């Protein structure tokens, strides 16, 4: 089986997804980078280049290895983008917006590789035409916001067929937790995998301890649009089916978080925020209040996560597990 190799100059083709808002901080990203994989910081959803610069520099005190920054294009980002290019971070990950030739050209001039996460064949086509360096294909299985409608098993090979001849590596995201998912993605023609929920349940992630516990304990998710409708309209997401969610999963379409009571507070990228009922912000380590009533994003693979691990262990298990699996089952 081909594809067993590092990508984009990294030792391995394993990507730790940027986890918003403020879940994948310097400690997680550095731990992933030190393990030879691709760690990605998450930029704030508002212009805050000085704060972002601090995050990047703090990460650099924890690792000599390259890493990335993720920017959600649906939010104000021009100054943050400028900061990523000035800091010459190895990877610029983009999501939920138009990846223009202009962004790609500017990034390449700064020596930064552009890796968008997309959710459809058409979006992959546009990204490839813009000249990106790799493409993360997000399947409907994914935790957090979900941009497409299709599952990975058919979408990945179609996009591989589209971009392989241009030398653009494809990275599969959604429901992948262990070496079986990793090897399955390689079989589909992907050269890498991107994991969100698995890296959320690590010692280094900023997810609230109660959220990590739920990821370990719970096995079911649902695709919904109940949370964050006012702040980020038209952005469906996959969440844990917590008791709070099950009670409100049929929330009338004209309801949203804007006029709801405050149930807690979080510090997100250094800024204190009120958390209202139905807000789209997952609890992080600073969050106080009614944590169990807050949104908890998770992918379909959550039932395969049974422990909170150091992030390096996640990478090690994927690499070693995949090598053994390929050797035992796919070589004669
Ligand atoms: C808590 C959480 C936050 C996320 N935040 C972002 C984000 O800010 N930007 C982004 O591109 N993707 C984000 N994602 C989606 C991931 O990039 C990725 O598609 C997804 O985690 C893959 O599915 P998995 O969770 O089953 O591994 C998030 C996912 C989770 C679980």
Percent of residues in beta strands: 15-25%
Helix content: 25-40%
State the end-to-end distance: 11 Å
Q: Uncertain runs with pLDDT below 50, 5 residues or more?
A: none
Q: How many strand segments?
A: 14
Which ions and ligands are bound to the chains? flavin mononucleotide
Order of helices and strands: EHEHEHEHEHEEHEHEHHEEHEEEH
* Strands side by side in the biggest sheet: 1-9-8-6-5-4-3-2
CA radius of gyration is 19 Å
Per the principal axes of the C-alpha atoms, what is the gross shape?
Answer: globular
Tell me about this structure.
GO terms for molecular function: nitronate monooxygenase activity. Keywords: Flavoprotein, FMN, Oxidoreductase. The chain has an eight-stranded parallel β-sheet with strand order 1-9-8-6-5-4-3-2. A three-stranded antiparallel β-sheet has the order 7-11-10, with no helix packed on it. The longest helix is centred in the C-terminal third of the chain and has 19 residues, at 311-329. The model has no long low-confidence stretch (mean pLDDT 97). The radius of gyration is 19 Å and the shape is globular. Helix 5 links the parallel strand 5 and strand 6. The protein has eleven helices and 14 strands. With 332 residues, the chain is α/β, with parallel strands linked by helices.
């Amino acid at each position: 089986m081909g594809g067993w190799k590092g990508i984009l100059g990294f030792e391995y083709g394993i990507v730790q997804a940027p986890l918003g808002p403020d879940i994948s901080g310097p400690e997680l990203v550095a731990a992933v980078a030190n393990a030879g994989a691709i760690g990605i910081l998450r930029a704030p959803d508002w212009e805050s280049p000085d704060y972002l610069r601090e995050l990047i520099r703090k990460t650099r005190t924890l690792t000599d290895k390259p890493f990335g920054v993720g920017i959600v294009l649906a939010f104000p980002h021009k100054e943050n983008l400028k900061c990523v290019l000035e800091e010459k971070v190895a990877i610029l990950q983009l999501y939920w917006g138009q990846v223009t030739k202009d962004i790609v050209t500017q990034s390449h001039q700064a020596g930064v590789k552009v890796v968008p996460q997309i959710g459809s064949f058409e979006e992959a086509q546009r990204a490839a035409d813009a000249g990106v360096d790799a493409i993360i294909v997000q399947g409907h299985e994914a935790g957090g916001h979900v941009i497409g409608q299709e599952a990975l098993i058919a979408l990945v090979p179609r996009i591989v067929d589209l971009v392989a001849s241009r030398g653009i590596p494809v990275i599969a995201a959604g429901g992948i937790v262990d070496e079986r998912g990793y090897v399955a993605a390689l079989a589909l023609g992907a050269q890498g995998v991107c994991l969100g929920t698995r890296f959320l349940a690590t010692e280094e992630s900023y997810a609230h301890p109660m959220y990590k516990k739920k990821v370990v304990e719970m096995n079911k998710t649902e695709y919904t649009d109940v949370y964050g409708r006012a702040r980020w309209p038209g952005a469906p997401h996959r969440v844990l089916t917590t008791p709070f969610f099950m009670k409100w999963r049929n929330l009338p379409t004209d309801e949203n978080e804007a006029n709801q009571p405050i149930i807690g507070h979080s510090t997100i990228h250094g800024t204190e925020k009120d958390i209202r009922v139905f807000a789209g912000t997952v609890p992080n380590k600073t969050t106080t209040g009614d944590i169990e009533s807050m949104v908890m994003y998770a992918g379909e693979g959550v039932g395969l996560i049974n422990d909170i691990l150091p992030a390096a262990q996640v990478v090690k298990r994927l690499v070693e597990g995949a090598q053994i699996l390929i050797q035992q089952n796919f070589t004669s």
